[in-house]
Amino acid sequence: MGRGKIEIKRIENSSNRQVTYSKRRNGIIKKAKEITVLCDAKHYHRLSGKRLWDAKHENLSNEVDRVKKENDSLQIKLRHLKGEDITSLTHRELIALEDALEQGLTCVRHQQGGSKIQAQRE
């Protein structure tokens, strides 16, 4: 025998509403963890509620710090690709940067060549 279908509407009794919210929130978190394991992916979930910090989110500040560091690193790489702040790079890093720029330029030229051929056909 299956579960009965309920109408989706506001639950008037506050304690019943809180219990339902907690159960559904836990179910969503469980599904997110399962997806993480199955797909070998990192996940982020944010559910609003009365309690901002939960025992399950003790590593949240570590994750925020990791994302900030990654963002800073990407900002530095972007500045290097723009030709800014390259005086601090080593010879090996400059060669890697040059290779990356040449690959990007090759892709752009290839794309432009395809666009020109497409325009000539029209």
From TrEMBL:
Location of the K-box domain: 57-122
Pfam families: K-box, SRF-TF
Compartment annotation: Nucleus
Highest taxon in the source lineage: Eukaryota
InterPro entries noted in UniProt: MADS-box/MEF2_TF, TF_Kbox, TF_MADSbox, TF_MADSbox_sf
A GO CC term assigned to this protein in UniProt: nucleus
UniProt xrefs under Gene3D superfamilies: Transcription factor, MADS-box
Residues in coiled coil: 50-84
Annotated PROSITE patterns: K_BOX, MADS_BOX_2
Keyword Transcription: yes
Keywords annotated in UniProt: Coiled coil, DNA-binding, Nucleus, Transcription, Transcription regulation
Limits of the MADS-box domain: 1-42
GO molecular function annotations of the record: DNA binding; DNA-binding transcription factor activity; protein dimerization activity
The keyword Nucleus belongs to this UniProt entry's keyword annotation: yes
Protein name: Uncharacterized protein
Species of origin: Punica granatum (Pomegranate)
